[in-house]
Design a protein that fits this description.
Helix content: 40-55%
Number of domains: 2
Radius of gyration: 22 Å
CATH architecture of the largest domain: 3-Layer(aba) Sandwich
Structural class: mainly alpha
InterPro entries: HRXXH, MetalloPept_cat_dom_sf, PRA1-like
Bound molecules: 2-acetamido-2-deoxy-beta-D-glucopyranose
Order of helices and strands: HHHHHHEHEEHHHHHHHEE
Strand order of the largest sheet: 1-3-2
CATH topology of the largest domain: Collagenase (Catalytic Domain)
Number of helices: 14
GO molecular function, one term: zinc ion binding
Strand content: under 5%
Protein name: Zincin
Shape: globular
Keywords: Signal
Number of strands: 5
Distance between the termini: 46 Å
CATH class of the largest domain: Alpha Beta
Oligomer: single chain
Largest sheet: 3 strands, mixed
Length: 323
């Protein structure tokens, strides 16, 4: 029990100080079994401090942790994409740390994934996108399948069977996507707005389409916010691998840790309701700010007919999915 407490406080302290690096190296618990593993030939002075050996594996030497960016992205696009991928790392690290600290017991966790679900599933998905080998993936800015050109609502797309490791980012993304520190700005609300307006969550979605990240285990059982909450209540085995639930949990965990402890202010007054959101009837005007800098308003549900609002991609079987 004491060991658990020590471990958790070490973890908590390290999580606070290292936002992106691996969160902790657990102090080894020196017991009889470990002495067997780490037995050394030389004599050991009785006052010598145990220093754990550095453990390397073939994987830790060969994996490429960052997504490659294709030469078709010009310097400006590359910088924006690098910045967005950095946001993605922050998002994933925060989501993983939240689950490492709270398991399936936090309010945010239970909102999106349900009370009785296995936290290893979302944790594994976040860590896999964060740390798995990216060498067989590619983000590109040209338009090899001509989806950007022919479909003005496309912010980007997975190339599906044409190139399963590749993702195209369309020019529209560079006009609409926001940095993660703008989370909640301009009245953004998870209930009303499309979380894909942020680079971090949009790139999480795109990463989850790559077979090497998720093996197609992540799906689209529910997309709309009320449907996500219902899924968490009714089918926890589906909620933990539902794409939009994974995005929204990660976003809200980030917001609560870094922006506002209670989540985006625009979502707050909904908490009194019993989650029966008839959100389409809600008297909530997101289009009030028509200034060109307000990309949020262009992505609200009420403006879903506008170009930036929809987020479409093609699945391996050719079906197009827009959210
Ligand atoms: C351990 O003990 C030896 C002699 O008994 C002494 O020379 C050495 O400085 C000690 N090391 C530490 C870390 O206290
Ligand atoms: C980069 O490419 C985009 C899309 O083609 C273009 O709009 C932009 O002007 C380019 N930037 C530079 C600095 O060349
Ligand atoms: C999830 O939560 C339930 C209680 O709600 C608990 O019994 C269960 O052990 C938890 N599962 C895991 C994998 O931690
Ligand atoms: C793959 O390429 C074909 C032929 O160019 C194109 O019709 C199709 O839309 C592409 N698929 C995707 C997912 O873009
Ligand atoms: C959850 O959804 C899956 C897939 O639709 C289904 O097979 C399963 O029976 C559902 N579980 C419950 C408890 O409804």
């Amino acid at each position: 029990m004491k060991l658990t407490v020590t471990f958790l406080s070490t973890l908590a302290a390290t999580v606070v100080t290292t936002a992106i690096a691996r969160p902790y190296v657990a102090e080894p618990i020196v017991d009889g079994a470990n002495f067997g593993v780490f037995a050394r030939q030389e004599a050991v002075a009785s006052n010598e401090t145990f220093v754990p050996p550095t453990i390397t594996s073939p994987a830790s030497r060969s994996l490429q942790p960052d997504f490659p960016i294709h030469e078709s992205c010009n310097k400006s696009q590359r910088m924006q994409l690098e910045r967005g991928l950095f946001d993605l790392k922050r998002l994933l690290r925060g989501a993983a740390d939240h689950i490492l600290l709270h398991g399936n017991q936090s309010e945010v966790y239970q909102t999106y994934f349900g009370e009785g679900s296995d936290p290893s599933v979302p944790l594994g998905i976040y860590l896999r996108v964060l740390e798995s080998d990216k060498s067989a993936t590619l983000f590109r800015c040209d338009d090899p399948d001509r989806n950007c050109e022919t479909q003005p609502t496309y912010n980007g797309h997975w190339r599906g069977n044409n190139a399963t490791g590749e993702t195209v980012i369309c020019p529209l993304s560079f006009q609409t996507r926001l940095p993660i520190e703008k989370a909640c700005a301009n009245g953004f609300s998870l209930i009303h707005d499309n979380v894909n307006v942020y680079w971090a969550t949009d790139l999480l979605h795109r990463a989850m389409h790559l077979p090497t990240m998720t093996n197609d285990h992540v799906g689209h059982t529910a997309d709309e916010y009320p449907a996500l909450l219902e899924l968490a209540r009714n089918n926890v085995t589906e909620s933990v691998k539902n794409q939009h639930s994974l995005q929204d949990f990660a976003f809200e965990a980030f917001v609560r840790a870094n922006i506002d402890e209670q989540g985006c202010p625009a979502d707050r007054h909904h908490e009194d309701h019993d989650h029966e959101h008839e959100h389409d009837d809600h008297d909530h005007d997101h289009d009030h700010d028509a200034s060109p800098t307000s990309t949020i308003s262009a992505t609200s549900t009420s403006a879903s007919a506008t170009a930036a609002a929809q987020d479409c991609h093609t699945h391996a079987d050719g079906t197009v999915h827009c959210v």
